[in-house]
Write a structure and sequence with these properties.
eight-stranded parallel barrel; about 525 residues; 3 domains; six-stranded mixed beta sheet; binds acetamide; alpha/beta; 16 strands; Chitobiase, domain 2; TIM Barrel
Amino acid sequence: MIHIERRIALVVMACLLSLPGLSQLPLFPTPAEVRMAQGHFTVGRELQVSSNGGYAGKLAGILSEELKAMDGDASSSGQVYLELDERAALPDEGYVLEVTPAKVVLKASSEAGLFYAKETFLQLAEATDGKVRCCRIEDAPRYAWRGFMLDESRHFFGKEKVKQYLDIMASLKMNVFHWHLTDEPGWRIEIKKYPKLTAEGAVGNWHDPKAPAQFYTQDDIREIVAYAAERHIMILPEFDMPGHATAACRLYPEVSGGGEGKWEGFTFHPCKEETFEFISNIFDEIISLFPSPYIHVGGDEVHFGNQSWYTDPEIQQFIKDKNLGNEVGLEHYFIRRINDMLAAKGKIMIGWDEIVDAGVSPDKSVVMWWRHDKKYQLVKALENGYKVIMTPRRPLYADFVQYGQHRVGRTWGGYNPIEDVYRFPESIIHLAQGYEEQIMGLQFSLWTERVADAKRLDFMAFPRLAAVAESAWTLAKRKEYSLFMQKLPKFLETLDELGIYYFNPFCPDSTPEPDAPDKEDVLKNG
Ligand code: ACM
């Protein structure tokens, strides 16, 4: 009888403790399942960290150093064990973390999963000053694609800033850094075959066309790719075309598609063989630097600067000869050709959602949905069999303001407060009903026309990045905005320690908006 009562009591307690409200730990993002238990594990200087070898051994060494750096309780001597076990068949990137008073066990079936177990344990240890409540966490991501995009063509931030973002992303279990490296004001990646691209193409930025050249050498790129890989982050390079190609066309006018006034050289020439050869040679160098199975080719907003396509006799003749119908047909021909070119090089093409209309192969391409005002484009992509990454301007563009009083940044019938970011994708996911398997995930994208320095970059990224991380990782049934806001101060403390200037949603006036370098930056619609 006593036994039965005890068992009932234990079951009731276990249920209560597994309710999200009671199990909310200061973890970013919230894990899938948490069961709290009695007691604590104390991180001490005599701690032993061991493993079952291989990658787990390497990670054990890293964790041991990270825990030592916390300078824990001198008298305590617990054990931490890391185990990579493929046969346990835990979900990809998933893990189990078990904390008992004497021992912590981190277990996963994938290297990424074990890495995330380590990040979770570290967050717990840091948030509790080394006195970690006993618990069992079973965790796995909602989405495979948890991305952040940084535009370094408009403004350049450099290697150290990128590494800092990679560190924070890893801690937030974000796994894709989409790097927008080529566009109108600047070309930021060294291409050995075309040295003018950086020698002259990297001169200038959105605010200052004469700013000294700033770009990444191929050695820098290799260093950053390796740094990201150690943190289980894939770097997705973007080489934007046929539009947004101004920096390249300025230096190599033989591949320029013309254009007028401020749009001069905005597109590549869409039908010269020389253009395709130029692009193919650049792809070869990009592919040699980035192990990602994907290459992003842009494909957006071609109509901004393709005026010459309508008047150039060679282009007009090409449209007739190839039966392309019109200039839009030509744009689609260009994208299909690039899709085939990349497929022949063994890469999957990613493009902005305009590529859905080009009739590229869903087996060889992935769509990034960005036009929040064209929801039908998301639906069309899914109905046509494409895999989709969601980064709609509202609420996932980080250059949109996050507070009603802010004056610098973009708006579009509203802005992107942290709450809207957090509530994504629930706000639109009904559109994907029946196609959930095709949604790869989501991404926060930071365009930098109105972001001229690191202070403003941080201000726009944080703390919204923590909300994106949770939207991408945490199961919908475990998301609760009020609980997220309750734990957010812990994340702000971490940002304080890192010296990051962020927007404080709890006392907005304590963190004034950094100055705009230009009156053009002030509230732009669209
Ligand atoms: C975009 O914002 N032009 C993809």
